[in-house]
Amino acid sequence: MNDRFLKACRREEVDVTPVWFMRQAGRYLPEYRKIREKNDIMTICKTPELSTQVTLLPLQEFDVDAAILFADIMLPLEAVGVDLEFVENVGPVIQKPVQGMRDVDTLRMIEPGEDLPFVLDAIRMIRRELEGKLPLIGFSGAPFTLASYLIEGGPSRVFIKTKSMMYQEPHLWHSLMEKLTEIVRRYMKSQISAGVQALQLFDSWVGCLSPEDYREYVLPYSRSILQGLREMEIPIIHFGTGTATLLKLMKEAGGDVIGVDWRIPLDDAW
Prior knowledge:
Mean pLDDT: 94
Shape: globular
Order of helices and strands: HHHHEHEEHHHEHHHEHHEHEH
Distance between the termini: 28 Å
Largest sheet: 5 strands, parallel
Number of helices: 15
Structural class: alpha/beta
Strand order of the largest sheet: 1-4-5-6-7
């Protein structure tokens, strides 16, 4: 019934312009904090009823134009055999980072229906609860951002190990990115089949790269995913942080909507 967000994504005329502030508003709500007292992030993500509940919490408090699936960008990695845990005040930590071709080979290909059924079940459940009132946005981490976690072993500010692999072992880098690209493509397509009405590709850490490095080491893989999803005929959002120097290249890679951060005025980004 409220298709303002989807119209804006398609560049159709809207009565007002919706703005997505890239935060899951429900995380500071008292109801969410109560859920977190008894459940960690992964438990919520893997329990469709809890994921649905948390997804819908902001809708009860704010007159928003869309719902955003409660999930985590690391879910596909765990599904393909990565040993990870969420450490309080740190984030996702990977016990055995990718260091060689053997590590890449051990990453099996994802089968979303078998490996991530809880995500797809949550999408279907949320769609039923929304009753057509608002669209649902799904998402996935982009290959570069997922690769940076796999190589660094967790969050990083400087990405030394990631860049070292790019420059010193390009064959290893491209092999990892090719596998992650197919994993992300399958994951995103499965979300569309389950019912999301828009998708976002999160390249959270790609702003650490120069335009030249982005073009060589990242753009082909993001483009492969984004162009491959066009046939699914739903809006795709391409988002990163620190990307003021990369926006033209991100547009070249693809996406109906380009997300920007606070480092560039919206009119300059446009």
